[in-house]
Write a structure and sequence with these properties.
Elements (H helix, E strand, L loop, with lengths): L3 H22 L3 H35 L23 E2 L15 E2 L2
Antiparallel strand pairs: 1-2
Helix pairs in contact: 1-2
């Protein structure tokens, strides 16, 4: 996830607020009006990106696997059992006698 949009919109919002504040103090009515009208949408976009980033952070932390339990001991993993792939007939006596012998499990 890139943080560039959040940084960009936050910078624009702070800059617009500073311009609006300065233009009000210096009696630049038109500039104060323009910057004052653009400030609320920029503030809403900045807040939206903050909320979205926070939600993504929470989702990332929730998906992260837990490596340790409360007492600090590492979690133990189960040993994998060897899988039984197929039943293979006994081929040591030849193909003709495979019907009479029981099949063996491949290990």
């Amino acid at each position: 996830m890139s943080h560039r949009p959040l940084v960009f919109v936050s910078g624009l919002t702070v800059g617009d607020y500073l311009l609006w504040s300065w233009s009000l103090d210096e009696n630049h009515e038109v500039l104060a009006l323009v910057s004052g009208l653009t400030l609320p949408p920029l503030a809403v976009a900045c807040l939206w990106l903050l909320v979205l980033g926070f939600a993504r952070l929470i989702a990332h932390v929730a998906r992260r696997p837990v490596g340790r339990i409360a007492h600090g001991a590492p979690l133990r993993r189960r040993a994998r059992r060897p899988s039984v792939s197929a039943v293979a007939p006994d081929t040591t006596t030849g193909a003709a006698s495979t019907d009479t012998q029981s099949p063996k499990l491949a290990a």
